[in-house]
Write a structure and sequence with these properties.
With 356 residues, the chain is α/β, with parallel strands linked by helices. It contains twelve helices and 14 strands. The chain binds S-adenosyl-L-homocysteine (SAH).
Amino acid sequence: MTANLLDFDAGAMERFFAELGEKPFRARQVLRWIHRRGAADFAAMSDLAGALREKLPGLARIEGPLVVGDGVAEDGTRKWLLKVDGANSVEAVYIPETGRGTLCVSSQAGCVLDCAFCATGKQGFNRNLTTAEIVGQIWLANRLLEGDRPITNVVMMGMGEPLLNLDHVIPALRLMLDDRAYGLSRRRVTVSTAGVVPGMDRLREECPVALAVSLHAPNDALRDRLVPLNRKYPIGALLAACNRYLERSPRDFITMEYVMLEGVNDADAHARELAGLAARVRCKFNLIPFNPFASSGFRRSAPERIRRFAEILQQAGLTVTTRKTRGDGIAAACGQLAGRVVDRTRRVHAIREMRA
Ligand code: SAH
């Protein structure tokens, strides 16, 4: 197999060209062609020396994920189903808003964490995506969307837990930030985690970007049930990691995501308890109305309940936004991304080990 150049961040691309006896600026030219201009083929790279252009197809390829589904909702949200191998597909979602366009990117085929309310978790875990498969989602969306630089923000909030796949996520983040590739600011690239504490520390050292934490509960007893990873990294450890992260974060707050589940975590008392936690770390809250899927066993809190919950947090001096539900009708809302995963992990064992 030839090398897939979508796997290479700038450093890896320079090493690749150095091995061919080429100067580093060749690597930069090729990076620009691929990521800035969306090139899929070497013949188009008109400023490369002819001999190199002819040699490259024998050594390398530019191969993004295969689009097997493409749907647009009434509000303009667009969802792609992307086949990454014979058994697995993942989803990427584009959310256009005035003045910005956000791409929601997947990091794994399936997910091992099995959060109680998440569709991805229900289908088990198969494998980490490669850098090419992660960055390929942006590369592809850029090619398929209209307009000049349609993607202004990236959120790693698709399928999977990005902090359990940092070996591939970090090079992908570097490409998102690289001026020769996507040139996004660190503040406009957000990694969302269910609370993988060592991963938060590693991200802080190697590639700090905006961080969102899926909190979802104000105490360990409830969070243990909703986000089983909490049994390994309870709230105290999680908040301490948030404070360490803030020392290097491009934003001076952590976004706390909180899914609103009727009768489960949405009482006034939960909001007050949450305000107590929030006093321990600089954060903002993003309330996510639960997005139902078949046999989830949960219901979305009523709008009035969400409003009241937000009000209690605001009265405690916190900044709160409530996420608008987008992508209705194409199952593109948060937590509905399912793709197709062949679960090869005997998930129960994987989780047991994780909790050990
Ligand atoms: N593993 C990462 C990214 C996953 S999804 C994480 O846990 O943060 C991004 C967000 O969607 C998370 O906050 C997740 O908890 C939330 N989510 C999952 N299922 C949902 C659902 N059915 N409705 C609303 N939000 C959901």
